[in-house]
Design a protein that fits this description.
Elements: H1 9-19, H2 24-37, H3 41-45, H4 49-56, H5 63-78, H6 87-90, H7 98-107, H8 118-127, H9 137-151, H10 156-169, H11 188-191, E1 209-219, E2 222-227, E3 238-239, E4 242-244, H12 251-263, E5 266-272, E6 276-279, E7 284-296, E8 306-311, H13 322-333
Parallel strand pairs: 1-7
Antiparallel strand pairs: 1-2, 1-4, 2-3, 2-8, 5-7, 6-7
Helix pairs in contact: 1-2, 1-7, 8-10
């Protein structure tokens, strides 16, 4: 892990933001490319947001990328390019909460503040036999307080990284490697043979599933894309016009209605593309795309920041959400001449 070989606050901060909700193996190539493209706080602060979002494309949780650049601007221009060293002051920076604040202050500056992420919660719920729901904020706070005396007696950077790695590699959610765990003689879950019961984590409610219909609208060899508003989820990314299916609508009717509402265009559906499934944090979608041509009207950005006709060969210059990336790959590889006409509108 390239961020484990440095004490540079900028690198540690970038890595910890990327690692939120994302596997280490996925993050490593993104981290390396990002640091190459934006090697300093100044380069990130002054970069075009579209370049930052494009570099982040595929990692998801795009609010992280926007907050990252917002924080970089604040750090560079308001803090003279210096990261605050204290845990409390770090949390005043956009996008830096208790977890990232603890990681940066301990690893970069050697301050004795314990990191409590999912791995650490699991380790000490087992070691101390905690039976309460680890989703509860009070459990996280209790573990934070209990670890503080220990980290004060240790090298804070080594302590936090060691515990996080212990959780990731040994004290795994399923089939933990208890035989090689250095904490096994103190671990209540191991001693009582309850590692399959602990930690207790309440079930999330059922994940909503939405059907989204969009139009791939052609004008000669160009397609129409729209840029999402900064205030929206996935703000700053580009997408195809469309939206959520309403009760009683066919998917084709949804596409036609949404395209009219968002762009003012009257279009004709030529054929459907195969559906694409994607999972976000709190909901799932199935993306249903339709190849369309314009019947009448000129594009008007009614819900997007802007609309743009783009050649298919140039579309990779723009940052898109993951489901739209999959759709673009499909459009590029699909032999449209062999697809059946769509007649059930």
């Amino acid at each position: 892990m390239p961020w484990r070989t440095t004490k540079t606050p900028y690198h540690i901060w970038i890595s910890e933001v990327m690692l939120q909700q994302t596997q280490v193996d996925t993050v490593i190539p993104y981290f390396n490319r990002f640091i190459t493209q934006f090697p300093t706080l100044h380069s990130l602060a002054d970069a075009d947001q579209q370049l930052v979002l494009k570099a982040w494309e595929g990692l998801g949780y795009y609010t992280r990328a926007r907050n990252l650049q917002k924080a970089a601007k604040q750090l560079y221009y308001d803090h003279k390019g210096q990261f605050p060293e204290s845990y409390e002051n770090l949390q005043k920076i956009p996008g830096i909460g208790p977890y990232i604040g603890a990681a940066v202050t301990s690893i970069a500056f050697g301050n004795p503040v314990p990191v409590v992420d999912g791995n650490v919660l699991r380790v000490f719920a087992r070691v101390w036999g905690i039976t309460e729901d680890i989703r509860l904020p009070k459990v996280r706070d209790e573990i934070f307080d209990a670890l503080t005396p220990f980290i004060k007696k240790s090298n804070p950077s080594d302590f936090n990284q060691g515990i996080m790695e212990l959780g990731a590699l040994i004290c795994k959610p399923k089939n933990p490697s208890c035989s090689i765990c250095p904490l096994k003689t103190h671990c209540i879950a191991f001693i009582q043979q309850r590692t399959d019961e602990l930690p207790f984590k309440s079930k999330k409610p059922p994940t909503p599933h939405h059907h989204i219909a969009v139009g791939v609208i052609w004008k000669d060899d160009q397609i129409l894309i729209g840029k999402r508003k900064e205030t929206q989820m996935l703000g700053g990314l580009w997408e195809f016009p469309g939206g959520k299916q309403e009760e009683g609508e066919s998917l084709a009717q949804t596409a036609l209605r949404e395209i009219k509402e968002e762009t003012g265009l009257e279009v004709e559906i030529i054929f459907p593309y195969p559906p694409i499934k994607h999972t976000y944090t709190h909901f799932k979608i199935t993306l249903h795309a339709f190849n369309c041509r314009v019947i009448s009207g000129e594009p008007q950005a009614r819900s997007a920041t802007e609309l743009k006709w783009v050649h298919l060969k140039d579309v990779d210059q723009y940052p898109f959400p993951k489901a739209n990336i999959s759709l673009l790959e499909l459009i590029k590889t699909q032999d449209t001449q062999t697809l059946p006409l769509f007649t059930s509108v």
